[in-house]
Design brief:
The protein is built from seven helices and no strands. By secondary structure, the protein is mainly α.
């Protein structure tokens, strides 16, 4: 019985090692695309509002299939970098229901994506993550104000 358990553990460890190796290799192969997306998002944010960042994120994420990990990661990277670099992120965040929890954010994201004609799960799940982003941004803003005082 012990040999069976050890055999199963060895097989699981080998499969996990192969999975980690594959994922690491995949991330490295995508690095150029991810960097390009982040650079574009930073440039985009210089001349666009947070609402336009959200609209572009909806477009990018809405074009992803449910299983397109690379596409979804690029949409999320775009969103974060764009919101990090646009001037009115805090005002935009305050207009979302991020304080009301995940259900409210999912509802908001569903409506927002539908308004952009992107009602797929990629758009909704990506924009739902704005709740966490906005919560963290406003906490950081409050901490900066407290430190300045």
């Amino acid at each position: 019985m012990i040999k069976w358990i050890l055999g199963i553990l060895v097989v699981v460890a080998v499969l996990a090692g192969i999975g980690i190796w594959w994922f690491t290799s995949w991330i490295k192969s995508q690095e150029g695309d991810f960097t390009e997306t982040m650079d574009y998002a930073s440039q985009f944010a210089q001349t666009h509002t947070a609402t336009e960042c959200a609209e572009e994120t909806a477009k990018r994420a809405g074009d992803c299939s449910s299983f397109s990990m690379s596409c979804l990661i690029k949409a999320q990277l775009f969103m974060q970098v764009c919101f990090d670099n646009t001037q009115d992120t805090l005002a935009f965040c305050q207009a979302t229901p991020y304080k009301e929890g995940n259900v409210a954010m999912v509802t908001w994201a569903t409506v927002f994506c539908a308004e952009q004609n992107k009602s797929g799960q990629g758009c909704i799940s990506t924009l739902t993550q704005l709740g966490d982003y906005c919560s963290n941004q406003l906490i950081d803003e409050q901490n900066e104000k407290a430190n300045d005082a």
